[in-house]
Amino acid sequence: MALLKEVIIKTLLFAVIGLLFSSSCVANTVYENFPSEINPNEKYVFYSHGFIVEGTNPTPVNPRWGMYDFPKIKEKLADESYNLIAYHRPKDTDPRAFAKKLANNATTLINQGVKPENITFIGFSRGGAITILTSNYLASDQVNFVILAGCSRFVKNNPELEVFGNVFSVFETSDGVGSCQFLIDRSNSVKTFEEISISTGKEHGAFYNPLPEWIIPVKKWLN
């Protein structure tokens, strides 16, 4: 009888441990489309690629900066602590329309119970401008935004654009697209702002591949 009781206790214990382990490992999924099922207890991160990837080729080549490795960036950016959503935008995507789509995605997550502080948008170059537009449309001081070499002439030439919430910026010192400080200075609802520079000598191409110089600090900030 004592042996049977011990077996039952151990079985129940292993079952509980299994449930805890499985629930903690549900994240770490990479989505190419908006997920059909939402877990309100998980985090969601959106990554928006640069202009060169718009179309059908996930690894296009720029004559100056080399190949943009979209699949590898998604692989390295993925993490067990969140779900990664990375759309492959079609050719001639309208940045404002796509930003509205992302803002609607965030609203859907929030309506399904995801906390705004558990939602992050990351964007590089054209994707960075889309991320800024998304922040402008959402106007939430709880959502998080990562801008990778995204404070371009487009952003400067549209002074009505502001960012909100928690903002992290990374730019390359050899690149023509620099600091986002001017954007922060004109934004009245930024909750926190952190910015770092990297110096790889690769100009805009520094973000064409998942270099540890930017991947590591971005993932550290996300977590």
From TrEMBL:
Going by the entry's taxonomy, the superkingdom of the source organism is recorded as Bacteria
Q: Name one GO molecular function term.
A: hydrolase activity
Q: Which UniProt keywords apply?
A: Hydrolase, Signal
> Where is the signal peptide, in residue numbers?
1-27
Among PROSITE patterns, the record links this protein to: PROKAR_LIPOPROTEIN
Q: What is this protein called?
A: Alpha/beta hydrolase
Organism of origin: Thalassotalea fonticola
